[in-house]
């Protein structure tokens, strides 16, 4: 990965038990698309830049890197839990090239 990019890594756990959540989807939406507009359009694949799933221990690593200084919405979703998302997140030159973004999901 280039120095002008970051790679998202992290873990997804149950907010009440702290246990890892396997097979949770982690989506990065196309720059400029936020969660509400994606949901309102019925979650079109065309608005997903990349996706991955958590492993048996709840860990993930995005398959590609993201450019710095551009806004991206991250969505974490798995059946039985409320979606968790961050709209228009921006990573700058001071952020690590491997950026850890952990999430705790609620039922």
Description of the molecule:
The protein has one helix and nine strands. The model has no long low-confidence stretch (mean pLDDT 95). The longest helix has 6 residues. With 107 residues, the chain is mainly beta. Helices cover 6% and strands 41% of the residues.
The oligomeric state of the chains shown is single chain
Query: What is the mean predicted local confidence, pLDDT?
Result: 95
Tell me the β content: 35-45%
What characterizes the major β-sheet?
Answer: 5 strands, mixed
Q: How much helix, percentage-wise, in residues?
A: under 10%
- Rg on CA atoms, Å: 13 Å
C-alpha geometry: globular
E-strand count: 9
Number of helices: 1
Low-pLDDT regions: none
Given helix and strand content, the structural type is mainly beta
Distance between the termini: 36 Å
Task: List SSEs in N-to-C order.
Answer: EEHEEEEEEE
Topology overview:
Layout: E1 5-14, E2 25-29, H1 35-40, E3 48-53, E4 59-61, E5 66-67, E6 72-77, E7 84-89, E8 98-100, E9 103-105
Parallel strand pairs: 1-8, 1-9
Antiparallel strand pairs: 1-4, 1-5, 2-3, 2-6, 6-7
Short description:
This protein is mainly beta and 107 residues long.
Please name the defining characteristics of this protein.
mainly beta; five-stranded mixed β-sheet; 6% helix; 107 residues; four-stranded antiparallel β-sheet
């Amino acid at each position: 990965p280039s120095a002008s990019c970051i790679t998202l890594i992290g873990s997804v756990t149950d907010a009440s038990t702290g246990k890892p959540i396997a097979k949770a989807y982690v989506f990065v939406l196309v720059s400029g698309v936020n969660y509400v507009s994606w949901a309102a359009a019925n979650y079109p694949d065309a608005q997903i830049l990349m996706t991955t799933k958590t492993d048996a221990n709840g860990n993930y690593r995005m398959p590609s890197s993201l450019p710095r200084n551009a806004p991206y919405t991250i969505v974490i979703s798995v059946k039985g839990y409320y979606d968790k998302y961050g709209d228009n997140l921006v990573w700058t030159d001071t952020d690590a090239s491997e950026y850890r973004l952990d999430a705790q999901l609620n039922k």
